[in-house]
Amino acid sequence: MFSERLKKLTPYVPGEQPRDRKYVKLNTNENPYSPSPKIREFLETCEIESLRLYPDPLATELRERIAEKYGVKKENVFAGNGSDEVLSFAFYAFFDNSNGNLLFPEFTYSFYPVYCDFYAIQYQKIPLRDDFSVDAEAYIGTESCGIIFPNPNAPTGICLSIEEIIRILENYPKDRAVIIDEAYIDFGGESAVRLINEYPNLLVIRTFSKSMSLAGLRLGFAIGDNGLIDALFTVKDSFNSYPLDMFAQKIGEIAIADEAYYSSVTKKIVETREELCSELGKAGWNFLSSKANFVFAGKKGIPGEDIYLGLRDRGILVRHFNIGKIKDFVRITVGTKDEMSRLIEEMKKL
Ligand SMILES: *Cc1c(COP(=O)(O)O)cnc(C)c1O
User: Which of 61, 100, 183, 273 is at a distance of 20 to 30 A from 155, taking alpha carbons?
Assistant: First the structure.
């Protein structure tokens, strides 16, 4: 009854969403602030009649709004059920092993190897530099069928400069995809979206889950040359014609238009991140320079696992990865100022 395919799967394990007690939840990079208040107005006036019909399979208006915001055409935009789904379609569409392995960083978003196993894509992990940054040179110098990395990278929070990204694109074969997963770019990095017209092999992937505070809605998108976007539609339409329900499409349109609200929320999070780093420094903790809504931190003499468990006992959840040179760090999501004060207080007691 169970397929051989199934027996080989090792699923991704997301950060825990506990139900046993109330935690200060700093483990999945959710936004501590509310989504745009304009969404409430929509929900209060929406007619249940609209649910009778299938949603637009092309998410046309949502893609138009996204295209307007980023100065591209709707033909350059694909939208999916969370950026995880968009990533999955992209792995299916662009990577096989005809020209070598897929390359991604040794420490990165741990869904990438899961998609590789799912689609039987061979991959090679490229070590980070000693300072934990992504090593652009190593990607150029290795024969491969494609490249993917988050920028800023997760769980380090370190951002690669746009010049380094251009260097990769300039020196990489134009017939192989380079995917930049910009889940955290709104928190301080420079986006590669403006490069898509120059590099038809560049796909930029974004999510509504982090900076737009809509992780529960499941909405993500990709921006790239229309050849790449058409390929994503081909995969989608071979799998599910309607991955985006009518609420997700409509709420996405409202959120993407409310720049004033979201830029103030993002500004607050960036300020809080910088305050958190300054407090961590004063308390003798090490941390990496972050351009995301999380900080990767550790303290000499305390194993990462003990930090994680100690904070958990004290009602604070952070994320710990028990692997290689990152095992003595924990990834802390930037929450509200109050949550960060409580965190620092408990960290000092460890
Ligand atoms: C959170 C995250 C995603 C997934 O986002 P969803 O849109 O919620 O599926 C993708 N990539 C990275 C690097 C992330 O951290």
Answer: 100
